[in-house]
Fold this sequence. Notes:
- With 543 residues, the chain is an alpha+beta fold.
- It has 3 domains: 1-232, no CATH class; 243-387, no CATH class; 408-540, no CATH class.
- The protein has 22 helices and 17 strands.
- The strands form 7 sheets. It has a 5-stranded mixed sheet with strand order 8-7-10-16-11. The chain has a two-stranded antiparallel sheet with strand order 1-2.
- A hairpin with a 2-residue loop joins strand 5 and strand 6.
- The protein is globular and about 75 Å long.
- It starts with a helix and ends with a strand.
Amino acid sequence: MPRLILGAVVVASLLPFIGKPFHIDDPMYLWAAQHIAVDPLHFYDFDVNWYGSFAPMYELNKNPPLVSFYLAAVGMLLGWSEVALHVGMLLPAIALAFGVQALARQLGARPLLAALTAWATPVMLVSATTLMSDVLMLSVWCWAATLWIDGVDRNSRGRLVAGAVLLGLCPLVKYFGLALLPLLAVAAWGRSRRVSSWLGYLAIPLVIIGAYQGYMILYHDWNPLADVAQYALNIEVKETYAPAERVLVGLSFLGGCLLTTLFFAPYLWSRAMLFAWAGVAVATALGLRALGAIGPLALHVDGTTRWDVTLQLAVYIVAGAHLLALAARTLWQDRTVDVLVLVLWLGGVWFFASFTNWTTTARAVLPAAPAAAILLTRALAHRSSGPGAAATAAALTAGLAISLTVAWADYSLAASARTAATRVTTHHGDTGGTIYFQGAWGFQQYMETAGATRLDFDGVRLLPRDLVVTPANNTNLVTLPEWALYELETFELPAGVGVTTLSTARGAGFYAALYGPLPFTFGPVPPERYTVARVTRPLAFHP
């Protein structure tokens, strides 16, 4: 019955987004899947224009191919439409929810409550509405941990092998899955104290990962792990925020992405501590006001404090600090290996997202959701004044309502790109020239599907009567010379009401903190703006 309830909640909460347009990095996974359907042995052996010039897919895609193999199977069975692929992605989402439930049982937490709490977070629900690798990776992660820990406890060769195989496959869905290996080594050592009973099985994931690495080096002369490490450590990108600001941004993303956990705070802390947390929130808001700006987000405009954004940022920061404090308190009170693993899991994800990744993103925070939910439910079980059934249902409902709202905002943002592509190619398709465009993400997918061409800055020559379309809220944009262009129109499209996931003006940077220090922001949502210009004089780009 609990699994039936959990599965029903997952499916019901995702059905409204089953037709979500391709969004952010979805096209990269889609293109790889379509290529795999034709040539599975050479899965990244094609060129893509993603940053403004063509380059091999194996250089551009900073993710391994397993999720694209899965999408290829879905596409060949159900078709390549948005609905078909999102239907296929329901399975990894359900598997993830069940995996959190099973792992919570292994680690001494209430299984259904932990799974529902993790699922009801904004980062989990939004991530499950994409085609990207994050949900599948975390599903494999949770089941690898469950089988491995169970194998150690029972000294079961079959479960250790199964867990080790999944442990090897996890980094082939997303490279962050490598972080699971030391976590499971700590878990095995703490639970068995006998290295000889499990250490040899870790050769299995090392062989799997090494085989993939060897294939990429031999076939492409490309070291994917070294490349993604260099990309993640890109100092130039990280200079958007000062080191101290990155602490605040990391806390903001942790707290905002896992905002549902904040609704359980009244049952986790004494009244005095709740007042103390309220004081910290006020002090944080006043400190942000004094700071005036954080990264690209100005908290003062024309001498006026933007209190709506400032207060939200303060709440998210305190919510993130609350989770880290809860983890530290739980470890202090319950010094078991299970709690240690959960604390290392949560803290490690936060540190990676804040300081190691190329920028802080909600996708980098997502792996913390199961650990936070399991720690929270363990802490609730040790409180004499824990929430009753009604209070628990109210907290989960409130969290899920916020998460659905954020997911709908992300859906609206994706839909605006598809609408813009349709409008441009319909209204300007008979100009007699080529329609070029800037930008990537879902906008690129829909523009190219309609016959437009992505600008290639390594040698394309624009001729009179060609058109150039530029979205204002996108990536890899270049300012073109005004002397060669005549603006035909600038139009705006609504991108949701009341909350946004990606807007520099509102400080929302769900997919990259380069756009703002909050994962999402409530309040007025700026429209998406697109400019269509006609080329009036020949314009050449040189490599």
